[in-house]
Every structure is written in structure tokens, then in C-alpha cells.
Design a protein that fits this description.
Length: 49
């Protein structure tokens, strides 16, 4: 198991946005919720231990 990095989150966000752009006719409700979550996680400053 490995830690999820900000880079991993950014890659996932990019992939999801590309999928939405390629297929706008689909219902992307769940994906849009995930995108909102990823944006929040990316925008937060890193936690200190």
C-alpha cells in the first residue's frame, strides 16, 4: 500500500475532466462529486505531522 500524493489526485482530476469532456451526454453526477472532493483536497495546505 502506498500513500496517495497530491500528484496522484491531480492525475485523477485530469482524467475525470477529460472523460466528461469526451462524453458530455453521460450522467456524471457521481464523478462531479468526486471532482469537488479532489479540488478541496488539492487546495488544502499539506498536513504537518
Amino acid at each position: 500500500m502506498h500513500a496517495v500524493t497530491e500528484g496522484d489526485r491531480r492525475k485523477e482530476l485530469t482524467t475525470l475532466l477529460q472523460q466528461i469532456q469526451a462524453h458530455p451526454e453521460r450522467d456524471w453526477s457521481a464523478v462531479r462529486t468526486r471532482i469537488a472532493t479532489l479540488n478541496k483536497l488539492i487546495s488544502k495546505p499539506p498536513r504537518s505531522h
